[in-house]
Amino acid sequence: MSSTTTTLTPAPAGPAGPVPAKAAAADEGRIGLRANLRHIGALVRRNLLQIKKDPESMFDVLLMPVIFTLLFVYVFGGSVGGSLGGDRQDYLNYLVPGLMAMMGMNIAMAVGTGVNDDFRKGVMDRFRTMPIARSSVLIAKIVVELGRMMVAIVILLAMGFALGMTLGTSVLGLLEAVALAAVFGAAIMWIFIVLGLSMKTAQAVQGMGMLVLMPLQFGSSIFAPPQTMPGWLQTFTDYNPLSNLADAVRGLMMGGPVAGSVWTTLAWAAGITLVMAPLAVSKFRKKA
């Protein structure tokens, strides 16, 4: 790798094992913003090269939007569309913005399993011996997964428009919806990084992730309007951050009041990031 793209060189030979937390924190504090950005760029390039060598890792991003859209529109579109006072076409306009909100959650799981797998292979131990900010390793992971999320959203929107979805607002509203989904998705990725650093195997991360994702996704307004749910589930749905995100994205794309849902979603994203990002970096430094 050329000197213009990275300064990630192994540390001088010395005792094996992770760098002590205090020393790592001191090193990170001495690294400037420009160097930190260079490190993130180099690590992003490394992760992209991994995807290039293993294109099968993109199958979930390429196929998930297609499968979910076709499955829910043609299996549930008639009945749920009727509850919305319309037909399958109305359900398509309701579903696609909700699926945009869901993309970040599903792709976030790959961050946790990827971090866990890198530790198992010893890759992360090598990174921790290098003179780089510990946060740059994790931020690079999130940047690449956000790129994968954007690919999934583009495919999802292409499927939606191909099936007849109509945009009720404007292209600007659509871009704002994509940006909001990306902000919330990045926040959720910090949770899965913590899971990846806390659990012993990638399979355990995936299993725990499914236990978290399933209630949040199906107990929300992503797939069906909460008005059709029993009262106790409506209460859960009202406080579910995915419902706020789905409603905000739907409003930005299809029209309607959005201010409350947008600000609530941004508050959730900020709160999750402020709590989980420092915890993830701390666990990364201390993980044996």
Automatic annotation (TrEMBL):
Listed transmembrane segments: 61-82, 94-116, 137-165, 177-197, 204-224, 262-281
InterPro entries for the chain: ABC2_TM, ABC2_TM_bact-type, ABC_2_transport, Nod_factor_ABC_transporter
Localization per Swiss-Prot or TrEMBL: Cell membrane; Membrane
Domain of life assignment: Bacteria
Primary site of residence: membrane
Pfam families attached to this UniProt entry: ABC2_membrane (PF01061)
MF terms in GO: ABC-type transporter activity
Domain ABC transmembrane type-2: 56-287
UniProt topology in membrane: Multi-pass membrane protein
Entry keyword set: Antibiotic resistance, Cell membrane, Membrane, Transmembrane, Transmembrane helix, Transport
GO terms of biological process kind: response to antibiotic
UniProt entry tagged with the keyword Cell membrane: yes
GO CC, alphabetical: ATP-binding cassette (ABC) transporter complex
Family: Belongs to the ABC-2 integral membrane protein family.
Descriptive protein name: Transport permease protein
Organism (species): Streptomyces arboris
